[in-house]
Automatic annotation (TrEMBL):
Methyltransferase is among the record's keywords: no
InterPro entries found in the cross-reference section: Ala_racemase/Decarboxylase_C (IPR009006), DCO2ase_PEP1 (IPR017530), De-COase2_CS (IPR022657), De-COase2_N (IPR022644), Orn/DAP/Arg_de-COase (IPR000183), Orn_de-COase (IPR002433), PLP-binding_barrel (IPR029066)
Modification N6-(pyridoxal phosphate)lysine, positions: 61
Lineage, opening ranks: Bacteria, Bacillati, Actinomycetota, Actinomycetes, Pseudonocardiales
Its EC number(s): 4.1.1.20
Coiled coil: none
Cofactor(s) required, per the database record: pyridoxal 5'-phosphate
Residue span(s) of domain Orn/DAP/Arg decarboxylase 2 N-terminal: 42-282
Organism domain of life: Bacteria
Molecular function GO terms recorded: diaminopimelate decarboxylase activity
Official protein name in the record: Diaminopimelate decarboxylase
Keywords on record: Lyase, Pyridoxal phosphate
A biological process from GO: lysine biosynthetic process via diaminopimelate
Length: 412
């Protein structure tokens, strides 16, 4: 992580700002810091790898911080939201409503009212949701635009989390889609969304899933009530969280998508084809910074007790979907002294609050700062902030120059 977040005079920097200065600037620790230039750089890398005809959408759930969303609205071609709260945040940016999609099971009627009134695409997850959207559409006098989220009849090898294949709460089973399409009535049919798995570091697996997804969409398009104008191929691009992980190679994915665009996808000439990424765009652009408040020894183990913990960064504790707990990358942010083996724990009164188990760090004393990397996605909003009543952390977006709200240079 040293190249991503370089040090100046031995102190880690984010967006060119030393973390100790950031701590003073935001009012203390713990805090999350996101690097604006790293966000833009990652989007540029993805765009360079993907064929020009593929649109890039950002999954807001990965990091819905308003400043991040405002920045990303000028970088990507669309947003995907999963709640009315995320929808409102997305609508507050410069992203046009017709480039926002609303996915997720269990949308309430009130949420559907907001979505239809805003003019975003509602991605239907069930036949019941279809009926409620139709009712809302009639009540508002607005022809709702809908896409079907499809639970595919295949699963993805190598995915850290499976979201498709088998029985799922996500989407409509592929074999049920024709019957649902027949009941759309006057709704404005837009297309399909197929997302089968996330946190995948295997390019061959992602390519295989994309090919299977395109084949599935082509079959479903044959029974669609109107031409398909939207195909969301999902994403699932993973990032490395430990030394044993190998970073995803984008090149074969881009080559695979280019072949699909030149062959199979030509059968859908009206379709805007979308790759939807969350973690991959923002995950490596953030750090969680926390301060050592105690240094203690217990039966051969040196513990660094910090003022943060799993209530802010649940994933780093291993309690957010990890089958086998592995340490996130950590560093002593304000010291480069002799390396020692320590265990980093949070301030919560539970043994679950483990941030780094037997990790090698530069020696840290009380008052030093510890940085946990890969914290740009599924950090604060994926953590139980109310647990044990500690105050919430701060968040800050730093580095680079913010885009003018009136300027949008990305492809539309």
């Amino acid at each position: 992580m040293s190249n991503t977040f370089p040090r100046v005079d031995g102190v880690l920097t984010v967006g060119g700002v030393p973390v100790d200065r950031l701590a003073a600037r935001v009012g203390g620790t713990p805090f999350f810091a996101y690097d604006r230039d790293l966000l833009s750089g990652r989007v540029a890398e993805v765009r360079a790898a993907l064929p020009a005809e593929i649109s890039l959408s950002y999954a807001v759930k990965a990091n819905p911080m308003p400043a991040v969303l405002h920045h990303m609205s000028a970088e990507v071609d669309g947003f995907d939201v999963a709640s009315a709260g995320e929808l409102q945040l997305a609508l507050d940016t410069t992203m046009p409503a017709d480039r926002i999609s609303f996915a997720g099971p269990g949308k309430t009627t009130d949420e559907l009212v907001q979505a239809v009134a805003a003019g975003v695409t509602v991605e239907l997850e069930s036949i019941t949701e279809l009926a409620r959207v139709r009712d809302v559409s009639e009540r508002l006098g607005i022809r709702a635009r809908v896409a079907l989220r499809v639970n595919p009849d295949f699963s993805v090898r190598g995915a850290g989390m499976t979201l498709g294949g088998g029985a799922q709460q996500f989407g409509i089973d592929a074999e049920q889609v024709p019957a649902v399409l027949a009941q759309l009535g006057d709704l404005d049919f837009y297309g399909f969304h197929v997302f089968a798995g996330s946190q995948n570091l295997r390019a061959d697996s992602i390519c295989e899933a994309q090919r299977a997804t395109v084949d599935l969409v082509l079959r479903l398009a044959e029974v669609a009530p109107a031409p398909v104008r939207y195909v969301n191929l999902g994403g699932g691009f993973g990032i490395p969280y430990s030394a044993r992980d190998t970073a995803l190679d984008l090149a074969p994915i881009g080559e695979n998508l280019a072949k699909l665009a030149d062959t199979s996808l030509r059968q859908l000439p009206d379709a805007r084809v979308v790759i939807e990424l969350g973690r991959y765009l923002v995950g490596e652009a953030g750090v969680y910074v926390t301060r050592v408040v105690d240094r203690k020894h217990s039966r051969g183990t040196t513990f660094l007790v910090v003022d943060g913990g799993l209530h802010h960064q649940l994933a780093a504790s291993g309690n957010f979907g990890q089958k086998i707990r592995r340490n996130y990358p950590l560093a002593t942010a304000t010291s480069e002294s002799t390396v020692e083996t320590v265990t980093v724990v949070g301030c919560l009164c539970t043994p679950l609050d483990l941030l780094g188990d037997k990790v090698e760090l530069a020696r840290a004393e009380v008052g030093d700062l510890i940085a946990i990397f890969q914290a740009g996605a599924y950090g604060l909003t994926a953590s139980p902030t109310a647990f044990l009543g500690h105050p919430p952390p701060r968040e800050v977006l730093v580095g680079g120059k913010a885009h003018s709200l009136g300027e949008n240079k990305c492809r539309r």
